[in-house]
Amino acid sequence: MTNNFLTTIKSLKLIEGCKAAQFYALSSVGVSSGASTSGSFDGSASGRPAPPPPPKTFSARSGSLYYPHAAPSTSGAFAAEPHLPCGLPVAAALEPRLDACLRPVDHVAALAASYRRVSAAAEGDDDLCDVYLEQHALFHSIGDARLLRRALRAARVHADDPHRRVVLAAWLRYDRREDELDQTPPPLAPCTATTPLLECPRAAIFAGVSTGVDTVCPCRRPPPPPATPPPYRLRRNASDAASELGDEGEPETIDLWFVIAEEEVACERSCIAALSKPLNTLLYGGFAEAHRDRIEFSRDGISARGMRAVSAYSRHGRLDDFPPEAIFELLAFANKFCCDGLKAACDDKLASMVRNVDDALSLIDLGLEEASQLLVAACLQAFLRDLPKSLTNPDISRLLCSPEGRDRLDIAGNASFAMYYFLSSVAMEQDMRSNATVMLLERLSECAELPWQKQLALHQLGCVMLERGEFEDAQEWFEDAVAEGHVYSIAGVARAKFKRGHKYSAYKLMNTVVGDYDEPAGWMFQERSLYCVGKEKMPDLETATELDPTLTYPYKYRAVALLEEDNIESAIAEVGKVLGFKMATDCLELRAWFYLALEEYELAVQDVRAILTLDPNYMMFHGKMHGEHLIELLRGQVEQWDMADCWMQLYDRWSAVDDIGSLAVVQQMLTREPGNSSLRFRQSLLLLRLNCQKAAMRSLRFARNCSAHDHERLVYEGWILYDSGHREEALAKTEESIRLQRSFEAFFLKAYVLGDSSLDTESSLSVVQLLEHANSCASDNLRKGQAYNNMGSIYVDCDMLDEAAECYGIALNVKHTRAHQGLARVHYLKNRKKAAYEQMTKLIEIAKNSASAYEKRSEYGERDHTKEDLNTATYLDPTRTYPYRYRAAVLMDENKEEEAIAELSRAIAFKPDLQLLHLRAAFFDSLRDHASTLRDCEAALCLDPTHGDTLDLHNKASKKAEPES
Fold first, then answer.
1. Contact 376, 407 (CB under 8 A)
2. Smallest Cα–Cα separation from 956: which of 901, 918, 913?
3. Which of 187, 307, 577, 847 has its CA 20 to 30 A from that of 530?
4. What DSSP character marks residue 580?
5. Share of the chain above pLDDT 70, in %
6. Which residues, other chains included, contact 310 with Cβ-Cβ below 8 Å and sequence gap of 6+?
7. Residue 188 Cα distances to 419, 574, 616, 867, 960, angstroms
8. Where does residue 55 fall: left (phi above 0), alpha (psi -120 to 50 degrees), or beta otherwise?
9. What are the respective helix, strand and coil percentages of the chain, to the nearest 5?
10. By C-alpha distance, which of 937, 914, 893, 890 is closest to 929?
């Protein structure tokens, strides 16, 4: 088999496409959450020629210079073949990537402790912003984007200073960049109607408009009324503030002149003295100036023009129309003579003048020199809202990354852990090996004060140094993180030792960690397996999968091991287990590799096309060949379809519930018609079904940008708005689209938006009418089948079962296979349980590996069949929580309390889920284990503080626990 594969590859000239001096080790990287993955298994170098070396940047710990495009010194992951540099993957060269985040050994205890800290901070005077930032760092290991965003929003609401408001508002905007209609809006552009208040740049800077409860964005408020002129006693004349720069004031009030370069500036002594205590002491204290009416001021660093501005401000108290140069002098004067009110006014005025990055670059030095907190915050806001682009600017990068820049920012009150946490997250997402990433993480560690902050900064530094191949430095950083209490960093210490050639030492270290815990985590066994020899490795990998089935490395290792045993079909099945619940590009590539070895070129190309849909810049063979290049080389080995063939293939695969196959066909069609907005939209629907939210939004935006007609563009804009939570705005887009032209997609979107809420029967039937309007418009059977399926669901909710059955039947006639599930529900509601079970069986016969289908069928079977279906669902997708909850409830009914709790604990160990935690808390409560009940309730409330049932149970358990305490 292998010889045939080598012969085929040589005939396709893959050698020329893969030639390189070195190949990188495999690692378990999933779909990138932000920047495109450049390597297939480790996200490393891009295959493009290396650019000139960057400016020298040194790590404070190692002093080493790193060139980001140099190949790392890891051993190859290929079986060396004299005729094939890329060869076949080797199991021994595989290794998982360490998570660059806080990873507690016991997630439940960590979540519960976080909830208690939030509660204590809310009742006391602690900083809630920092507590929510800690929660954000904790949620990273769970991997739920909604939790991460919720924690950031809470931190922003409780940020009580302009600097952190600026940082967190920019971070929220950065995280939401995929939801914007315009992906690259100007950094400080005024807010649109859909911009969340917490992201408003004005609300972040100016404390007076930064309340978290105000629902109106300052950018969209009507302009304030004109300022009321000051009283006559203070105003002295009718001219405006600008004219005061040349006004000498009324003769009867002028009693002081400052002499500057032979020019006299008339002032009022009392007004100047009121600016600050030092000036009051100078003019009314025991100094000689107190008895003079003319004071020499030529050596005090202010011009006559600037002093006239001081005089004008001292009388009127505002800077309305002063030119920038005058305000610069006023700020310097305010700093020199401690005029707090004047400084605040100048700071506020200059901050409002920062409208773009260029303004920020021109004003940042002045702000830093004068320690103007608000001005520096406004400049930083422009830089932060332009990430990651702003990090490529040498001036900005020097300020943000260097130790000197941090010191200058700190003096101005604008250096914080929150800022460097944000900056280092962006830098790691863009290029984990870059010098900028290292320097930002070093600044992060310098700002770290709390234990969790030190753990995070030190651990991430270790991860970056490990990626750069600086293993000695990596080991030191990981050891520092362990000393701060981060147990997961022990895996980093072991990995660094292993890379330095101390394999047995690494094994002993991980063996000790496994033995130290009564309930060790899956990652501990995974890490120890790297350092095992022979038959000892497989048991550790099996245990790792049993404890945490979401770890991809054990599946990949077993798959490649099966390949080495010439059992390719089993290898494909093993890596396919991951793809059943997680669209990981490295696993798709590995399966494509196996298909090539099996000479199944059609299936190999299908997986490559799916990879390119998820990441258009993906490089195969560890950064040595672009996926499109590989597809081109395989053209002679696969059947070539025209667009008509592609539509037929798409119809068949969509009907067969083959989402990956459908995705591949759409990608192939888009290579022929890249500007086809309808295909881009279908691509986004498939990606959403596969739970690839960011890729789906990217495709939806492409659809919007490629639209040739306004009514189409409005529909896609409506979907973008709806998916980002703006329901009313989405409805407005659909109405406008329908006014321009009636179309299937416009009516479908309107029905979808209106139907996504609790409706009465009359409103529900109006949604059905919209779907009927949609089906009366031109479209294909794929979309019309979906419309009929949705109509059936609405009829079921209205208890109109016959009408629902009719709609599901029409959908099935056009091969909308998922309608079997709806028809099964109709049968069940008509007390035809056996017929419902048979309908779901028909769906399972088509979608053989659908965990959701097995889970749904379990509702209609007998108890033994139910248990069997739920076990199958867990096997296909271990992340689905309903099977665990059902099995636990059955065990509880059988009075097997310990087994029921163990069943829930098995899932909670790798997926802390609200429903799982609540159910386990209820079980503990029934056993009168109040401490465990409170712990699980607190962990659940950390995930959702508003969950009513959990709040009730928590209050109940708290009252029961008080007498015991």
1. no
2. 918
3. 577
4. T
5. 86
6. 267, 272, 275, 302, 330, 333, 342
7. 18, 49, 30, 56, 53
8. beta
9. 65, 0, 35
10. 937
CA atoms of 864 and 872, how far apart (whole Å): 12
Chain mean position to CA 458: 21
Q: Residue 887 corresponds to which tokens in the numbers above?
A: 């099995």
> How far apart are alpha carbons 31 and 696 in whole angstroms?
13
- At 168, which helix (H) or strand (E)? helix 162-175
Which residues, in sequence order, are CB contacts of 417 under 8 Å at separation 6+? 130, 133, 444, 447, 448, 449, 453
Helix 128-139 × helix 417-430 angle, to 10°: 20
Q: Which two tokens stand for residue 224?
A: 């304030």
Tens of pLDDT, residue by residue over 576-625, are 999 999 999 999 999 998 998 888 999 999 999 999 999 998 888 777 78
Which class for 560: exposed (0-12), middle (13-18), buried (19 or more C-beta within 10 A)?
A: buried
- φ, ψ dihedrals at 375, nearest 5°: -65, -45
CA 909 to chain centre: 23
Joined together, the tokens standing for residue 347 give 């700071």
Measured over the CA atoms of residue 452, residue 453, residue 456 and residue 459, the dihedral's sign is negative
Of the candidates 935, 940, 945, 915, the one whose C-alpha atom is nearest the C-alpha of residue 118 is: 945
Q: Which of 746, 742, 706 is nearest to 722 (CA)?
A: 746
**Spatial distance between the Cα atoms of 664 and 652, rounded to a whole number of angstroms:** 13
Say if residue 517's pLDDT is above 70: yes
Strands (DSSP E) contained in 876-931 are none
In which element (H, E) is residue 353 found?
Answer: none
CA neighbor of 548 nearest in space, from 257, 911, 22, 128? 911
Burial bucket for residue 270 (CB in 10 Å: 0-12, 13-18, 19+): middle
Q: What size, in residues, is the chain?
A: 965
List Cα–Cα distances, 856 to 783, 822, 840, 878, in angstroms.
23, 10, 8, 15
**pLDDT score at 252:** 63
Q: Which residues contact 920 (CB under 8 A, 6 or more apart)?
A: 888, 901, 904, 905, 908, 936
Q: 801-804: long-range contacts (C-beta < 8 A, 24 or more apart)? A: 801/826, 801/829, 801/830
**Nearest alpha carbon to residue 312 among 226, 255, 237, 251:** 237
How far is the C-alpha of 899 from the C-alpha of 887, rounded, in Å?
Answer: 10
44 confidence band (pLDDT: 50, 70, 90)? very low
DSSP 591-650: HHHHHHHTT-HHHHHHHHHHHHHH-TT-EHHHHTEEHHHHHHHTGGGS----HHHHHHHH
Q: What is the DSSP string of 801-845?
A: HHHHHHHHHHHHHTT-TTHHHHHHHHHHHTT-HHHHHHHHHHHHH
CB atoms within 10 A of CB 709: 13
Q: Is the dihedral angle over the CA atoms 58, 59, 64, 67 positive or is it negative?
A: negative
C-alpha–C-alpha distance, residues 78 and 588, integer Å: 17
